[in-house]
Amino acid sequence: MSKKASINQILKHPTVWQGRQRLSSQPVCSTGYEALDQQLYEGGWPQGALSELLLPAPGVGELRILTPLLKRLSQSSGYIVLVNPPFIPYPPALRQQGIQIEKVLVVRSETVATTVWSAYQALVSKSCAAVLTWLPGRAPYRSEVRKLTLGAREGAAWAFLLRDESAHLHASNAQLRLRLTPLPQGATQIAIIKQRGGWQGRQVVLPLLSEQRAWTALPAAYWPCYQPSKPADTMLTPALANAIPRAIDKWLQQVSTPTSTTPPSIH
Amino acid sequence: MWLCVRFVLLPLESLWLNASATAVAVREQNQIVCVNQDAYQSGVRQGQSVATAYAMNEGLHLVERQVEQERATLQKMALQLYPFSPVLSIQEPEYLLLEIGRSLTLFHGLDNLLQQLKAVITQHKLTLSLGLAPTPKAAQLFTQLPWQASYQLWDARTKSFNLAAVKRLIEQQSVSQLPLPKRTLANIKSLGIDSLAELMQLPSAALNKRFGRQLVDYIEQLLGLKPDPQKRYEPTVEFNQTLSFLDVIHQREALLFPMRRLLDDLVYFLRLYQKSGQSLVWTLQDNYHQSSQFEVHLTDATIDLNRYLELTRLQLESVQLTGPIELIGLTMPKLFEHQAQTLSLLEHTQDFTSDLHFANKIKARLGHNSCLWLVQNNAVIPEFSGQLKPQVSEPIKSKAPPKRQGTRVSNKPGARYRAPDELIDNQAQTTALVDSSGLPHDKIRPSWLLPTPQAIGSDAQKLYWHSRLTIVSQVERITHYWWKKAIARDYYIAQSQQGQHYWIFYDQHKQSWFVQGVFA
Question: Which CATH architecture fits A12-212?
Answer without folding.
Answer: 3-Layer(aba) Sandwich (3.40)
